[in-house]
Amino acid sequence: MSFISMPKNLRKNKADADSKGFVPKSMIDTLFDYKAFLDSSDSHGSIALKAPEQQKSIAVIGGGASGLVAAYELSKIDNINVTLFEAADRLGGRMDSVYVEDGDLNQKVFELGCMRFPPTSYTLYHYLNKFGLKATPNFPDPGKVPTELLYENKVIPWHAGQPTPSDKDFQRIGDDFNNIINFLLGDASAPDIENPSKLFDYWAIYQSDPSEQTKQKVVDAWQEILTQYAEVTYFDAVFKLAQNRSLVTRPWTQEDMNKFGALGVGAGGFGPLYGVDFVEILRLFANGWEDNQELLLDGIGALTQAFEFALLGAKTADGKPKVSIELNAKVKNISKSADKYELLVSNNGGRVVSSQFDSVIVATTTRAMEYMGLTIANDIGDQNCEEQQDLVSQGVKVAIRNLHLMNSSKFFVTTERKFWYPENNPQGKTLPFNIQTDELMRGLYCLNYDKDVDGKPNTQGKGVVLISYVWGDDSSKLLGLSPEERFQQFLPAIYAVNAEFAELLEKQTQKVSCIDWESTPNIYGAFKLNYPGQEQSNKDAFFQYQQEHLGLVLAGDSISWAGGWLEGAMPTGINAACAAAKYVGAQIIDNSPLTGISKDMYDYSLGENTAFCLLKDNGYLSAPSISAYQFGQGDFSIEATISTSSSGTIVGNKSTAGGSGGYLLVIQPDGSIKFATDNGQTYYQIESAPSTVVIDNTWHSVVAVRKDGKLTLHLDGKLLESTQSGASDQSPLDVSNRLDVLIGSVQQAQEPYIHYTGGITQVRLWRRALSEQEVASQYEQGTIIDKEGLVAHWPLAINTDDISENENNVSVNGDVSFI
Ligand SMILES: Cc1cc2nc3c(=O)[nH]c(=O)nc-3n(C[C@H](O)[C@H](O)[C@H](O)COP(=O)(O)OP(=O)(O)OC[C@H]3O[C@@H](n4cnc5c(N)ncnc54)[C@H](O)[C@@H]3O)c2cc1C
């Protein structure tokens, strides 16, 4: 999986990142340094301090990245024999390099699966280094190389080195999105460690000063994102955030969303991702997956081969093989009896054999796990089985059934020459190296799998063109087309972009290869990308390896925190190897993923589903004064629904200067609520008891009412006890003034708790006193009982609109977002 253009402030280039920016050493969801763990395991000789005392057998099902890593790490432990079952006739799974001969030159590669590798893939690079494989930083991302964008049949140039195409709307959208990401995560290229407020700031501090306190700040910052976005689609979140005028040049329209959908992702724009969980997208940016992509000139197949050699070379002290690799061996079913796991394995000829193991690692997609029967009760079909023992917990079964896998198709060709270089085409022109479109083909990449010569691209030999790389619905659309039909379908869009390029491509095409991952046997999907609401299932699946009583352990990209990346799959292989080795009696080295990652670090469960406005440090909203808000000495009411963890003013309409009146509704640090009125000379206020539970980060309805001069406060529909202070005479004070009504702040400097931080929604002003019963009913029913006297109603759910008849919208000041 791959994005096209990262926001321009994010780790612009490696040198930048190394010198002053922030580059994460771990994934945000684990904060575990796998590289350090692997280095330490190398110095011990394996991941185990002590091998099991007796000979043990572990089956690894699936010879993809995670299965290979697991088998490799286990193969280094004494007294453990490994059998690797692979259903296909080759190892590698979605590491799927198809090689094409090119005379005396290097062979060429079609990377049908993974093809671009960010250097923040620490586990991957650990193994690449170990096996002497070198990645090169010349992956032709859009905007890194000469690129063209075809959008609504218009060709827009996208010059090399530019984050967006040369069109003011695309530039605006790109800049806006950059602001949104910076607003949510901070600026990785310049984390603010002096005044930290965002994830990258805290993370940079933690990396340079690792302590429990600095780590907790990182966790809190990511938790805030999880709490706000784990139930929101990418489309919803971006659209809502892009209505916030403090983040975008102007609120985005449908047309802007369409354009944004054509930008940003390797598979032809963000559009195919609009339905996935927004948190999954933020993970990509948080983890730095989008930076400095590299490719392997020898293809990722070289890594598979290296693992295979290493596995076949692993020997016991008396020279016997430690690993048996079974190809064309499809595991049909797993069951457990006594302390052994029994596998039914069908070989190429369809013969089914059963074998038993002390422990099993299932390193396949969740869909393959489902087909293996992992979600079915263990004793189904076996009436004699007295003891039903599920292979995995209920939560993990839900995850296996439901976690969303993306569809994806690729279409590769080799060309006689690399015709996009000027020396290789008749006009001597630089043709596009990359084409992005909103048509069926989506993204095209010209790839050079030859070593640079004297620091310059090697323009000799065959070219490799990935003509089409698509995801989601675009991939489903292609399923019914033959390779020839697809090629014919793609050509018109390529001609529309650049006829010369298209002609040379058509003329020079030699070998063709395409894949649809969702219909690929034994894989059944491209990679995991959660739908909204699946984070908890993801957690259950990822942390399954920590269920110590289970000798069956899951691994693979589709239970990871980085679906679509080897760096998602590989660490799960390490987790599984540690868990299985421990289960069979090995002692694992310290600081392993068994102890070094806490499953309680984050709460991924769904909270209350409330759309709301988030006010941060200096953020507040202001509504211009209108005559309807001049309550004078009359009755009035203020309502707001809030969620906060600190003190601050909910609604304020009072200035510092005396002379004119006003009112304010404040949460105080001891948890009491204050409702104050003032006529410019004197004040009258009430405060609820300090024990009032309101600073607890959960949603509360707060209502303040003045009736005949008497003030009352209500929390969650109930009248609060309160104490009064100020003027003893209870004749109502004249609160009228010409000030803006502020939400989340007040202009009165004497107020010690001015800024409100937290969620706020459903703010209403009434030119009458709400009755105690009305307040209770409105709270219970969640609706307004009688609109009489309603002078302002700001739902603050997605925008700043006032939906009362006054239509007096608030404006945004400072750090405010709509969630
Ligand atoms: C189109 C595409 C593009 C990608 N791009 C990138 C990229 O640019 N960069 C990057 O880092 N990552 C990328 N990835 C992701 C990366 O390829 C995967 O994360 C990784 O290869 C997954 O490894 P795995 O071990 O989880 O699963 P797999 O590779 O799926 O391995 C599982 C293995 O289990 C076998 N199996 C299944 N069922 C059985 C059974 N019953 N019995 C025995 N064997 C079985 C399968 O045949 C398969 O070999 C991409 C993936 C795809 C599909």
UniProtKB/TrEMBL annotation:
EC numbers: 1.13.12.3
Domain Laminin G positions: 634-768
Keywords annotated in UniProt: Auxin biosynthesis
Catalytic activity, reaction form: L-tryptophan + O2 = indole-3-acetamide + CO2 + H2O
GO molecular function, one term: tryptophan 2-monooxygenase activity
UniProt pathway: Plant hormone metabolism; auxin biosynthesis
Pfam family, one: Laminin_G_3
Domain of life: Bacteria
Main enzyme class: oxidoreductase
GO biological process: amino acid catabolic process; auxin biosynthetic process
Family: Belongs to the tryptophan 2-monooxygenase family.
Protein known as: Tryptophan 2-monooxygenase
